[in-house]
Design a protein that fits this description.
Elements (H helix, E strand, L loop, with lengths): L2 E5 L5 H6 L3 H10 L5 H11 L2 E7 L2 E12 L4 E8 L6 H19 L4 E7 L3 H9 L3 E9 L2 E9 L3
Length: about 160
């Protein structure tokens, strides 16, 4: 079986929310004012100009996208919310294979991509480092939790 990558739709949100990883739930709630996860994802859809979904066996493994921060400054905020399916070794491997091309799609036209990740989101931190993102040394407090800022300069 392969990983299907396609444009995400709002109809994908319930499948994501139903099986979202615990750490992704926590990140979403902390950074978005403790809103309902369906509402959080609706806001991310509203803020983003590129939104993609990765499915395995017809089930959502992840939804990810890009929210432009400053078009004039060339900055964007890549984001990803995943389900427990992404933790399965075969799915994780397939997702990694798509990382470079999907990251290029997300960062196209921008010079800097950055966001925050919860310091305990080990899977995301390993993946971000593998994908070439760097991390600031200081921890950023968000509602009593420590987050790390990650960023990547995009080549022309």
């Amino acid at each position: 079986m392969s990983l299907e990558i396609r444009e995400a739709t709002r109809a994908d949100i319930p499948g994501l929310v139903a099986d979202m990883r615990g750490i992704d739930r926590l990140e979403a709630r902390l950074t978005m004012g403790n809103r309902d996860l369906h509402e959080v994802m609706q806001v991310m859809f509203d803020r983003s100009d590129v939104i993609r979904a990765g499915l395995y066996g017809g089930r959502i493994a992840a939804i990810y996208g890009r929210a432009p921060i400053s078009v004039l400054g060339g900055e964007c905020m890549p984001w990803l919310a995943s389900t427990t399916l992404i933790e399965e070794p075969k799915v994780k491997t397939l997702f990694i294979r798509h990382t470079r091309s999907e990251l290029a799609r997300l960062t196209d036209g921008f010079v800097l991509a950055w966001n925050l990740v919860h310091e305990k989101n080990r899977l995301a931190i390993r993946w971000l480092k593998w994908a070439g993102f760097t991390f600031d040394d200081k921890r950023i407090p968000v509602n009593g939790n420590a987050f790390l800022r990650f960023s990547k300069r995009i080549s022309d």
